[in-house]
Amino acid sequence: MTGMAMTTVMVILSVAIGIQTEDVPVDPYREIESDLGFVMNHGLISAASQRMVDDALEKLDDEWADENINEINTDILDDDLDENMDDDDDEEETHGRSITKRFLLNTPRKLWPKCVIPYTLDMTTLVPEKVSEILSAMSLFEYWTCFRFVPWTATTGQDFGLEHDNHLNFGRHSGCWSHVGMSSAGMSGQNISCCQGKNCIHEIGHALGFSHEQQNPYRDDYVRINYENIKPDNVFAFHKVKAHKRALFPWRYDYTSVMHYGLKAFNKNGRAAITLLDPHMKYLVGEKDSQYYYFLREAESVYKCTDDKCPDFTATCAYDGYLTYREGQCVCRCIAGLDSATNCTTIEGGDKARNIKWPEGGFSILKVKDVKCPKGSEVGYVTHFGQGKRSRDYDIAGSVSAKATKLEFCTFSSGTKKSKKSITWPPGQYCVSRAGGSCPEGFTNGFLQYADVRPPVTSGTLPDGNYTLHTKFEFCCRSDGNKDNPIVLPVKQPFLLWKRDRKACQKVKGAVGIPQHFEFTNRRARGVAELKRPLPLFKKRYRKMVLYVCIYKPIQKGCGGIIHLTESDSIRELTSPDYPASYRPLSVCTWVIQSPPNTTMLLSFPEFEIPASTEDPSVCSDKVEIRSFLPGQPGISYCGSGFRSAIESQTNIMSLILHSMTPQTGSNHFRASVSLAPQGDDLCYLSGDKGWTYRGDINFTHDLQTCLPWRNVTNCHHHEFAEGDRFAGLEGNKCRSPGHGTRPWCYTHAEDCRRDYCDVCGTGGCFDILDDCLASKTADFTYCLLGHHIKEGVVGCARTCGLCDTQKSAPASSIRCSSPTPPIDGKPLDALRASYRVGENVHFRCMNGGNIRSQTCLTDSTWAGEGRVCQVCPDDWRIMGDHCYKYFPDPVNETEAVRRCGNEKGQVAMAKTTYERDFIYNLLLTNPHDIWLGLGDKRSEGTLLWTDGTPLDHEQSGLHWNKGKVTNKRRKDCAKMNKSRNLVMRKCSAKEAYVCQTPIIFPSQCHDERDDCAELLDGLPTLCTDFRGFGVRSCAATCRECERSL
């Protein structure tokens, strides 16, 4: 359907070459595109390689940020607009505006019936290139899912039995945006502004019902949102949605989702808006998943297209595969390397594409150096004269010199006899040379004419063109498919296609595509050199024209295997093919490893020799890709000599893929061991509390970076003086888990609060990075004691300096705490026992009533939460100024909020100053809601008064009307602050969350909870004012808080 639409909207443009430019890289072969090669240096990434990777990821991240910069996400905007609508809707609708803010809607009225999405193209605002990108985005959904995009007419709804007349109106409007889900627009349709590239997929995702991945309610285990770096007008795009208002999936968080913002999207200061809690996952966000595995799986799951299409399909798709409807058939979609023909139960073997024939009809392709033309084609060449250059790797038959360029072609005539094994040209992003006077169906004609120094020389059969005075090439190009959808072409031998997409070659099943290019310089001749698009990818530099091609080399598959680990068979070995000899070139071997449910695995390499580039050691020639996070996502690719650290999977399925792309020299091989990782009771921390109760001594990350002292990172969310982290054990620089993460971690860079996880149980192995550790320690007995083994913040000699011993902790399940000593001001609510397991709690209530303190058994057999129970505020309240505050996310009407705060001996919070407003707002960030304020005009219509009778000062409070719209109308007497920190009036019967505030009441005598308060104050004189909550609770006497209150 999209291919037909393409031919009706394509507009051919003819321009002079001297004007045309296209911004593409000079040598895209050097680009980091589909995956990143990490060169291993004794098991860790070398400094030079790490800089290369960081620079590449930074570039990709900036590009993604630029693509997102103008996006208007109307799923959020619609929610804000609703605040100014009439409140006469029913209660569910009044509070339920955010029901449209899900990751993927599953409300029937917001989903497109029958997975059919009608559309129109506004050709008054779109240019042909943008239309191609829109159709390419559509083709991605059509290739992998049941969705079908159909051109809309007034009868489309009736023709397809849709019971609606809505459709998507694609146009070029201000910014990139879309409504979320299907609206009730009717015949007028709903507008969508697609922008370009992946943004088209992103915006169509919104139209299908997706919201942004960084709004995932589970995100706090995976990313940190740096609100202080985000432009105020765009903060809404980072608020979490409610877990019960989205379709939930087992993988919880998808770094690769096309709905995930770039890490710097909407930043206001050049700093990251999103920080990954595991920095090793950055490659997933920067790279994106070109196959959109889980993104499309979520769409299939909610829309349930296959329920109608595949009612008789009863097989199970193994190893995280899923059922989809592709090319008219119900098939399993498998993770990389598995065969859909066997429902993902076996390794994918050789491709049937090796036996098919080229399409019938006239066309021509460039001849591959040292390879015969395909059967049925005729060879010819043209030499055109002028200065030429070529890419470092160049496989086009002929020659390129400073004086001339010779190109050889394989040309199929239009009278080629049709074979039963012949195929039709599939949709995609590629070009061929024209032959026989016209383009094959689905292609569009364009041409390129050079200004030769002298007439070209020809021989044999050539593609269409003019080769008399100057060289003129005729091309046939198509952009009606997505380059990442593998197309089927004959791959019995290498072949060449003209490159069409800017970033990567069109994928071909059973072959690897490598971009190359050649350059030709036109002579000065006004009006001779010209072009007419569409054309292969090109770049114009003054009189120089660069053309890009893709060389496709057949790859061997079928090697590898499937490995199952069990409790009784928990360690297995796997080796590269032909080990210990070198593996075969031009092959892709896949190993899929599965362990029992709710377990993970450790992968290590006793032997690892995978070649890096001889010309650039930071680039992998061959690579081993390890998919350890989610099996359907791309993995990190490794090469080099030696691999000392172990890699732990995040689920019970992981895969290893050997990509051999170069001729073999030397002994290239690997030997790997995979085993069950310590689980549950075998770990030195409790996975159930994400390591909060861990109190070991490890102070370096699993990459051997040294941890920063917790008191030196006070600009970060978690630090020694954070009020909410008083019992988290943040003393010194030990690895801890105060929150935001899945296991113990620490900060490694104070300026931007970068952090990483620690291998506190030693499961990843312990090793030396430096080669001279033993010699250095022998020569200087203080080498380890004085920290000389730490180079640029990295522990270089962990094993030699005995740090491995600190990782040998007892399992947390074996540790016991003796009965806690009751606090002097509290009485136990539980019967005390003689012994407790790690993670068990004992509760004490203040003898004067009020606060209840939980003490928790820790892995060092001590108790968290020791000290006085009676507090000026309960432990779960936060202190600001002379008040305590607590956020209550459960929505209630304003009267009930006032009553509940009264029961807490307080009132609904007032935000009279911008400082108070921002403090209250920060309480909401972990679970954003609009909240009631202690503000309204019940006493005098039109006059907004705080609970204490003082009038609202807009400037002093920073509370301004939402979107500048005054909503102070009759029947709207109660005020709320929305998630954008703006003021909105609502009916008092509406339901919102709320914050209570209550005054601090100090006891007659203050006590310090800590013994080192005086020392802390000497080291940080502003401790009591900068960290008031900590000062009041932990160092009240030293901070003279009781004297202040008198």
UniProtKB/TrEMBL annotation:
Residues 102-306 form the Peptidase M12A domain. Zn(2+) binds at H202, H206, H212. This is Metalloendopeptidase. GO terms for molecular function: metalloendopeptidase activity; zinc ion binding. Gene3D superfamilies: Collagenase (Catalytic Domain), Complement Module, domain 1, Mannose-Binding Protein A, subunit A, Plasminogen Kringle 4, Spermadhesin, CUB domain. It comes from Mizuhopecten yessoensis (Japanese scallop). SUPFAM superfamilies: C-type lectin-like, Complement control module/SCR domain, Kringle-like, Metalloproteases ('zincins'), catalytic domain, Spermadhesin, CUB domain. Residues 1-21 form the signal peptide. One of its GO terms (biological process) is proteolysis. Coiled coil: none annotated. Residues 690-766 form the Kringle domain. Binds 1 zinc ion per subunit. Its EC number is 3.4.24.-. SMART domains: CLECT (SM00034), CUB (SM00042), KR (SM00130), ZnMc (SM00235). Residues 559-677 form the CUB domain. Disulfide bonds join C707-C746, C735-C758. The active site is at E203. It comes from the Eukaryota. Residues 815-872 form the Sushi domain. Keywords: Disulfide bond, Hydrolase, Kringle, Metal-binding, Metalloprotease, Protease, Signal, Sushi, Zinc. Its cofactor is Zn(2+). Residues 880-997 form the C-type lectin domain. The keyword Hydrolase applies.
